[in-house]
Amino acid sequence: MRQIDHFMPAASPAPTRKHQIWNPSTGEIQAEVALGDAALLEKAIATAKEVQPAWAATNPQKRARVMFRFKELIEANMQSLAELLASEHGKVVDDAKGDVQRGLEVIEFACGIPQVMKGEYTHGAGPGIDVYSMRQPLGIGAGITPFNFPAMIPMWMFGMAIAAGNAFILKPSERDPSVPVRLAELFVEAGAPEGLLQVVHGDKEMVDAILDHPDIPAISFVGSSDIANYIYHRGAERGKRVQAFGGAKNHGIVMPDADLDQVVNDLTGAAFGSAGERCMALPVVVPVGEDTADRLREKLIPAINALRIGVSNDPDAHYGPVVTPEHKARIEQWITTAEEEGSEIVIDGRGFSLQGHEKGFFVGPTLIDRVTTQMSSYQEEIFGPVLQIVRAHEFEDAVRLPSEHQYGNGVAIFTRNGQAAREFAARVNVGMVGINVPIPVPVSYHSFGGWKRSGFGDIDQYGTEGLAFWTKNKKVTQRWPDGGGDGSNAFIIPTMG
Ligand code: NAD
């Protein structure tokens, strides 16, 4: 059986525990990953401490060159990375390429580190006095990532952290750990010093070791909300800088004037793509007005029935299996709960079986109508190929529903009315808004982050926010008196008159 080990130069001690990696398309175990502990982390930290100072002292242009070569290597290895990713995650290969691509875009941004790391400067803040600021790395950053974007999310984190001069310890999801390891190998091939980016595998034991280690000053986490909340509080209690992004339940508001064909096309991709295992998926659609709801439902049914489910390397499949048998059972249980709560199962994906791949973890596309806000199946994240319709009466409901939901990651409004869209974007209590854009993940030179239980901490991922997270801002006030001796250059801070 293929063994997946930690990626670190220091010899790893014999692993005491292992985690089995599924192939979700076939339902077979295809590999095992070693699970690390506090002793292993200690070794990784010792290595990181050795290499980080020289990396931080490397001029930013040289650091950028390594990022640039890394970008080229990812591009050259796109196909194999996507296939490896798809085989462990279950998403189809094209979708897996998107996963790699969105991470790559953050690496592209990180290639501009000399530009974005320039500080601010004021000449003559007082007589002979200049003030400037410089962004300095924190030392060792750590990232703890979820299963659903095993390429993109690690790159969001280590791309910015390392370009800024930090060493990085990545603890990827134990469910699909191969691509993070492959990325770390490519990073060394790109010219990064060994030990600058290390990958340690593990579960709660390793996460707790990271949270408690005094030599890790900053932690970025993406995963489910209860764990995000735990990470945020435990890390913050130990004086660390923590950003922790959690679950989601994104709403798509459909105004009566929307182009429904476009909406249906967008929704089938945004609700069912990647089997709905995206934190920016659109699992809730809110048509405004009964007539809009009826027209939308009529168009959605044939579009959903036309979706093709296949194994992850089927080039014609719209989506593949979900990640584990437990997750398949959980999604099916949510459909049952929705039914018991009184909603209408219009298309039922439970019990779906793919011919020739009966052991794979497939869930058929599911459409549920007449969902209300009191239902737990509405309030909680399902994270599967399930689209719920919540019928709204008017525009005010459309603003209120996503605003009052416990999650606040993304939201989209579909309309031809610019004024309504503008007002919606300004008023809705959600972190990322799409206007006729179903999955509004901001480009790499903006930044990413949800609100409420979708994001704990106050600094977003990537872009200049990412740089702020992974650096400290030092402010320097310097005085070079002209030596005239008449007292005009007397030390006069803080008034600087
Ligand atoms: P998860 O919370 O189960 O796991 C995330 C990470 O936490 C993994 O590395 C895992 O090993 C670790 N972990 C798991 N249990 C832990 C525990 N008890 N203590 C400490 N660490 C623990 O999440 P997942 O199932 O891998 O990913 C799916 C979730 O992530 C969904 O809720 C999804 O919405 C969310 N997500 C959010 C975003 C975002 O940007 N907001 C992006 C992607 C995914």
Could you explain the architecture of this structure?
The protein has 497 residues and is α/β, with parallel strands linked by helices. The strands form 5 sheets. Strands 13-14-15-12-11-17-18 form a 7-stranded mixed beta sheet, with helices on both faces. A 6-stranded mixed beta sheet has the order 8-7-6-9-10-20, sandwiched between helices. Strands 1-3-2 form a 3-stranded mixed beta sheet, covered by helices on one side. Helix 4 packs parallel to helix 6. Bound molecules: nicotinamide-adenine-dinucleotide. Nicotinamide-adenine-dinucleotide (NAD) binds next to helix 8.
Bound molecules: nicotinamide-adenine-dinucleotide
Distance between the termini: 73 Å
What is the beta-strand fraction? 15-25%
Morphology call: globular
Rg to the nearest angstrom? Answer: 25 Å
Instruction: Characterize the largest beta sheet: strand count, sense, and whether it forms a barrel.
Output: 7 strands, mixed
The secondary-structure class comes to alpha/beta
Please mark out the parts with pLDDT under 50 across 5 or more consecutive residues, or reply none.
none
Q: Treating each run of at least 4 consecutive H or I residues as one helix, how many helices?
A: 16
Mean pLDDT: 96
Tally of extended strands?
A: 21
Strand order of the largest sheet: 13-14-15-12-11-17-18
The residue fraction in helices comes out at 25-40%
